[in-house]
């Protein structure tokens, strides 16, 4: 229960802590959570499921309240705790870090995310899924840009309506199952028609949260107008709930509909790769540019997941981790530029490399990681995903491969316009120690995973085997 109690307790503590100490309360809570999950990893036996909470009774409505994890869930919990610590560390010197509401909501968001990734009951998954919407909405509402309200209203409506689709699918599925436990829901045998509509409900919720084109219209404005930490939470963690949901819930629950949905989601994902990348190239707002870049990258992951091949699913987890780390780094760089220059417009930037060489160096490192150079985690993740898509359909694989070219164009364009040319200011404050440490941790992890990705593949491999074995329908994908 420590996985839940630590972030929840520190959320409450941050709400009452003295203003001069609250930033350290939040960071301490994040570090304590990181130590806690490290202990769970150390004692975890590969391939096993660990039950964290199970009352042993089923309610009248079929709720079991069961919570636990296998390697897939545990890896996502590690990611949540790591990224939360990075977000609070990178924001440590900012004004928002001294706000009680900010730290309390970040820790509450962490609590909700851990609940999403460890829920072993369909209704509990939905409850935690909805819970995460509250803190991120409040963070963006309280600390976002002045013109944020219309964008946040659209974000709330989109995600809430999408979530209702998932709830309806769960309720419908409950009519066939003994209860809402994960095992009971997966064990249900559905007709092709029933499976199609149940998967459609899940897909609506996940497609909006990822987001996939054309469900993406809420994302660019929300990312751009949220505070830096809010954008990091949205991009690095919140959208990962949907990618995880596809793997854990959507496909295993309704595998009978997999063949129908695979071409749809693959095409949407690959189309988003190209479309969002081309839009990113044209952007002059650096946060908006990175927002569209995020759509492009996650479209590739979503397309790969639908192949539901063990190797490609392993690559999806590598790329999920890579995207989270790189997103924190890129939005940290964008936030630094916005704070120091009082603008997000690339045309008003320039010459920063001469005034802040340390920042220029670390921004370049994150930029290279973003374009998936060899020996980075993005390289092996994208390689295996593209390999899988090429095997599914060589034309789709070829189109998806353009992400390597377009990604380099918009990333290096943003770097060139902001770092080189005539300085727009006479002075530019170089990196604080916490910002350097954040960039360093991200860079080290990206290289470590790039050099030895097998550690992640071996960790999730047995759980992926069990997951695929639990699916009762044939999920072989035919080109």
Could you describe the 3D structure shown?
The chain is mainly alpha-helical. The chain has one domain. It has 21 helices and two strands. The protein has a two-stranded antiparallel sheet. It is globular. The N and C termini lie far apart (45 Å). Mean pLDDT is 91; it is low at 473-479.
Features:
2 strands, two-stranded antiparallel sheet, disordered C terminus, mainly alpha, 479 residues
Provide a compact summary of the structure.
The protein is an all-alpha fold. The protein has helices spanning 2-16, 22-43, 71-90, 100-118, 122-131, 133-143, 149-174, 182-187, 192-209, 219-225, 228-253, 258-282, 286-305, 310-341, 352-355, 357-370, 377-392, 394-400, 403-419, 433-451, 454-470, and strands spanning 50-53, 67-69.
List the helices and strands and how they pair.
Blueprint: H1 2-16, H2 22-43, E1 50-53, E2 67-69, H3 71-90, H4 100-118, H5 122-131, H6 133-143, H7 149-174, H8 182-187, H9 192-209, H10 219-225, H11 228-253, H12 258-282, H13 286-305, H14 310-341, H15 352-355, H16 357-370, H17 377-392, H18 394-400, H19 403-419, H20 433-451, H21 454-470
Antiparallel strand pairs: 1-2
Helix pairs in contact: 1-2, 1-4, 2-3, 2-4, 3-4, 3-11, 3-14, 3-20, 4-5, 4-6, 4-11, 5-7, 6-7, 7-9, 9-11, 10-11, 10-13, 11-13, 11-14, 12-13, 12-19, 13-14, 13-17, 13-19, 14-16, 14-17, 14-20, 14-21, 16-19, 16-20, 17-18, 17-20
For the residues shown, what is the average pLDDT?
91
Number of strands: 2
Considering DSSP H and I runs of 4 or more, what fraction of the residues is helical?
A: over 70%
Provide the number of structural domains.
1
* Poorly predicted runs: 473-479
Distance between the termini: 45 Å
Largest sheet: 2 strands, antiparallel
């Amino acid at each position: 229960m420590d996985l839940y109690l630590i972030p929840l307790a520190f959320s409450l503590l941050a709400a009452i802590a003295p203003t001069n100490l609250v930033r350290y309360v939040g960071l301490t809570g994040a570090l304590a959570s990181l130590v806690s999950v490290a202990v769970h990893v150390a004692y975890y036996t590969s391939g096993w499921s660990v039950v964290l909470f199970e009352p042993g009774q089923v309610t009248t409505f079929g709720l079991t309240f069961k919570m636990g994890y296998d390697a897939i869930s545990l890896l996502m919990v590690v990611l949540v705790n790591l990224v939360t610590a990075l977000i609070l560390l990178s924001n440590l010197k900012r004004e928002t870090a001294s706000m009680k509401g900010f730290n309390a909501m970040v820790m509450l968001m962490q609590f909700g995310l851990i609940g999403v990734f460890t829920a072993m009951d369909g209704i509990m998954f939905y409850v935690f899924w909805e819970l995460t919407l509250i803190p991120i909405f409040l963070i963006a509402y309280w600390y976002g840009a002045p013109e944020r309200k219309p964008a946040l209203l659209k974000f709330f409506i989109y995600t809430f309506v999408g979530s209702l689709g998932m709830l309806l699918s769960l309720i419908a599925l409950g009519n066939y199952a003994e209860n809402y436990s994960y095992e009971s829901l997966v064990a249900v045998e559905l007709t092709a028609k029933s499976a199609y509509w149940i998967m459609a409900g899940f897909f609506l919720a996940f497609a909006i949260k990822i987001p996939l084109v054309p469900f993406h219209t809420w994302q660019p404005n929300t990312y751009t107008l949220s505070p830096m930490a809010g954008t990091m939470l949205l991009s690095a963690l919140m959208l990962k709930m949907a990618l995880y949901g596809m793997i854990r819930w959507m496909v295993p629950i309704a595998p009978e509909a997999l063949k129908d949905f695979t071409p749809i989601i693959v095409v949407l994902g690959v189309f988003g790769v190209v479309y969002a990348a081309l839009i990113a190239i044209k952007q002059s707002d650096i946060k908006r540019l990175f927002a569209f870049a995020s759509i492009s990258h996650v479209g590739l992951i979503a397309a790969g997941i639908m192949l539901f091949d063990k190797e490609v699913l392993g690559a999806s987890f590598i790329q999920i981790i890579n995207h989270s780390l790189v997103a924190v780094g890129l939005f940290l760089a964008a936030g630094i530029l916005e704070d120091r220059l009082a603008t997000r417009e690339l045309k008003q930037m320039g010459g920063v490399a001469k005034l802040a060489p340390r920042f220029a160096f670390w921004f370049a490192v994150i930029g290279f990681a973003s374009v998936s150079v060899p020996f980075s985690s993005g390289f092996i993740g994208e390689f295996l995903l593209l390999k899988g898509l090429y095997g599914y359909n060589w034309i789709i694989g070829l189109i998806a491969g353009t992400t390597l070219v377009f990604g380099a164009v918009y990333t290096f364009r943003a770097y060139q316009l902001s770092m080189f040319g005539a300085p727009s200011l006479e002075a530019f404050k170089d990196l604080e120690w916490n910002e350097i440490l954040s960039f360093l941790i991200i860079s080290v992890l990206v290289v470590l995973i790039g050099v030895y990705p097998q550690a992640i593949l071996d960790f999730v491999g047995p759980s992926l085997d069990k997951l695929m074995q639990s699916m009762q329908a044939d999920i072989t994908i035919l080109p």
